[in-house]
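Progress narrative, Year 2. Work on Phosphate--AMP phosphotransferase from Staphylococcus nepalensis advanced from sequence curation to structure prediction during this period.
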Amino acid sequence: VNGIKHLQYKDYHVLRDQIDGFETMLENDQYEIIKFYIEIDEQKRQEHIRQTKENPLTRWKAQEYENVIPDDIYLEEMREILQDPTQKDWKIIDYTDGEAATILMYEHIIKRLKKAIKAYHERVQTRDGLFTEGYTTDVFDNPLAKVSKSEYKTQIEKLQARMLEIQFALYERKIPLILVFEGMDAAGKGGNIKRIREK
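Result:
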């Protein structure tokens, strides 16, 4: 099994080029791609894995975690991607405090969708195909604050309602949307996806 693990990414750079090409194709067709890298405190992650192992219905998932790419290889490759200035926007979300992380995620999605709608109105028909000069990103800005249960419930309902409005605005303007989630196993990706789909 270990031999298979180490060989899974032997054509990593080819795979990465294919992903970049696919994203570019979608963006040329006016898709809005929002990418999240979900990270988590290792102690919390191990707690998630332990809970998964204890549940007979999800035990198979924990076994899958143990048979995938080793953590050090995965983290090394992802660190290279996140630090690559040519990579399109990744938003890093620390899911150690799941509720605060969910609020950050909603705020980021809403910000990006508002920007996409504004760009739709300002879009010109001709393009020179050049990259924007002076490109900057807030991918490593990740202010994570603790929130109380009551504050979380209030904020999440407002953010979900606002996101529903923006999704409808995208639908009216025929602007497709893709959300991308990346992160280690048991980091909290599933929880984020679940909350997005709740409304």
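The chain is about 55% helix and 10% strand. The longest helix spans residues 98-122.
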